[in-house]
Design a protein that fits this description.
The chain is α/β, with parallel strands linked by helices. The protein has helices spanning 2-44, 98-106, 124-138, 153-165, 174-183, 239-261, 284-295, 302-306, 334-349, 373-378, 407-426, 444-456, 469-479, 517-554, and strands spanning 47-54, 57-60, 63-67, 73-78, 87-92, 111-116, 141-142, 145-150, 186-191, 203-211, 219-225, 270-276, 307-313, 321-325, 355-359, 383-387, 483-491, 499-501, 506-514. The chain is elongated. The chain starts with a helix and ends with a helix.
């Protein structure tokens, strides 16, 4: 009996060792699996890549404007989240409001990512709301990085998941909040762009041309800014403001050139055409052109000495024409005669078009000009801005979603202005005479094609280079009708630049699908508990075998 007991003990010991060996192998396997999970988890994360456009960022006279940062490496949060500090707040255009944007900036949200429609017409209320948001965002420099991206199904899904699942801070109970943590998917929005730095050589451009009788005559200057403006350089369309002004100037150059090459009339004025860049950035190109003209002793500088009146075209693709002047022109002054000639053209061509003269003094205390003609007035050159807008602050004048022009209205306004200027430079006194008539009327199809080209072209001041297609195309179009066409490039000074543009206007953002940090905490606790249980089980195996042996012995 005693030898049997010894053999049984040896048998149990051998089995115990084998069991312990198997458990150890299992334990090692568990750790191996966990190690693989932690090693390969980052590679297994799903992510979505999309293009985003940074908000405008430039400097005028050393003062930065717009979005100063492009840093984004934050956890995504919905617009109505309570905790937004160092978070990337996702929102779409339909739900955004001025008050909420101001609140997010004041709470130091890390980044704002706003989705906007690409192929959807907007209501008047949406546009008005957006104009207010643009004004708030661009009125001063902000540290929060602001990005815009076009709506698409994949991005909409991310926005919806964040909106529905990650608002645990709105849960009614703590249990519900924990439930949201375990059942929801979060997103980390990451961008890998370098911090924005000033462009090495910021430049603006002016395209100049002239219709001349080859005699010494006074000059009328017709000006239109060709750049676009929006909350972000890549999103700006500016079809009406100021694509319409450019289209009108080019068509007027075509029509008026026939007067200068014909034999029926002999104009008493030369006409200089200017297409200016960076007009939406406080008319930088216009100011620089004026300064160069006034400081030049060459033939170029003669333009201003002979300039009798300046007509600036700004957003004329909507109903009505307003003549913005620094003060009401006196009787028989040049300004009065030009306006009178245009009024005569309206009465003979389109009597239903309304004309208004809007006086506004130049505010010299404000470094920002309201209208383009004010820069000429400051230099003691009389002028006016013609616009469909009655006020420079009117909704829609500087609008990202300005992507359409009423072609019939633009046609009428171009015809009126061409006829009025033709009457003035020809000194026509008979109200019954029509100069721009019959086969000399504006070309509807040509104007439409030019409008489409301008709307589709990227022509924000920050994006325009000397070899840009927008510059070469406008130079080519103007050169078809007028003489002495050339492009002037004005570079910012290196020491104290009057203007400065910044890079990093377009970036790639990545939305990584992740669990919230608190989920990782609970997961770690769960793993620790599991490993503790396994460890206790392994430690208790000898005691269990001894207990089984004692039971067997009693039997």
């Amino acid at each position: 009996g005693e030898s049997w007991v010894n053999e049984y003990k040896s048998y149990l010991s051998l089995n115990m060792l084998e069991t312990l060996n198997e458990v150890t192998k299992s334990f090692t396997t568990v750790w191996g699996i966990l190690g693989l999970v932690f090693i390969f988890a980052p590679a297994a994360l799903t992510f979505h890549e999309f293009t985003a456009f940074r908000m405008n960022h430039y400097a005028l006279n050393g003062n930065e404007m717009g979005c100063k940062s492009n840093v984004v490496n934050y956890e995504a949060r919905a617009l109505n989240a309570n905790v937004v500090t160092r978070r990337c707040v996702l929102m779409n255009m339909a739900e955004i409001s001025v008050d909420r944007v101001q609140e997010l900036i004041s709470k130091k949200a890390g980044s704002l990512l706003i989705s906007i429609p690409k192929n959807r017409s907007l209501s008047k209320e949406e546009i008005e709301n957006w104009n207010q948001i643009e004004e708030v965002l661009m009125e001063e420099a902000i540290e929060t990085s602001v990005f815009f991206t076009y709506e698409h199904p994949q991005l909409n899904t991310i926005f919806e998941e964040v909106r529905v699942s990650l608002n645990s801070d709105h849960a009614p109970t703590a249990t519900a909040a924990l439930g949201n943590v375990f059942h929801s998917n979060g997103y980390q929005i990451v961008g890998y762009a370098s911090p924005p730095v000033p462009v090495k050589q910021s430049s603006v451009y002016t395209i100049q041309g002239r219709l001349s009788t080859r005699q010494t005559n006074p000059t009328i200057v017709i000006v239109a800014g060709f750049d676009s403006y929006g909350i972000s350089p890549h999103l700006a369309k500016s079809s009406n403001s100021n694509g319409s002004g450019v289209v009108a100037l080019l068509e007027m150059a075509r029509l008026l050139s026939k007067i200068y090459t014909g034999t029926d009339t002999t104009p008493s004025y030369d006409i200089v055409f200017l297409l200016t860049g960076a007009s939406h950035v406080n008319y930088i190109s216009t100011k620089t052109w004026l300064d160069k003209q006034l400081s030049s002793d060459t033939a170029e500088g003669v333009i201003l000495s002979e300039a009798e009146f300046v007509i600036c075209l700004d957003s004329i693709g909507k109903e009505g024409l307003n003549f913005h002047v620094s003060k009401l022109p006196k009787q028989d002054s040049v300004g009065h005669k030009v306006i009178q000639a245009i009024q005569t053209a309206v009465e003979s061509l389109y009597p239903n078009v309304t004309l208004n003269t809007v006086p506004k003094k130049v505010n010299l205390a404000n470094a920002k000009f309201a209208w383009q003609h004010e820069l000429f007035v400051v230099k003691r050159i009389p002028g006016m801005t013609v616009s469909s807008f009655s006020n420079y602050k009117e909704t829609g004048r500087l609008n990202t979603f300005d992507a359409a022009v009423n072609q019939d209205t633009l046609f009428q306004h171009t015809h009126i202005l061409a006829e009025g200027i033709a009457r003035y430079v020809s000194k026509a006194t008979d109200d019954k005479i029509c100069i721009i008539c019959n086969d000399m009327v504006p070309n509807h199809a040509l104007m439409r094609r030019t409008t489409e080209f301008l709307t589709d072209a990227e022509r924000a001041a920050q994006l325009i280079k000397k070899d840009s297609s927008i510059v070469s195309t406008l130079e080519l179009l103007l050169g078809k009708y007028v003489q002495e066409v050339f492009v002037l490039e004005f570079k910012a000074g290196k020491r104290d630049p009057a203007f400065q543009f910044y890079d990093s206007t377009e970036v790639k953002l990545f939305a990584y699908n992740v669990k919230p940090a608190v989920f990782d905490l609970f997961l770690a606790i769960g793993v620790a508990i599991y490993l503790g249980v396994v460890y206790c089980m392994v430690k208790s195996i000898p005691q269990c075998l001894t207990y089984l042996y004692q039971i067997k012995k009693l039997k």
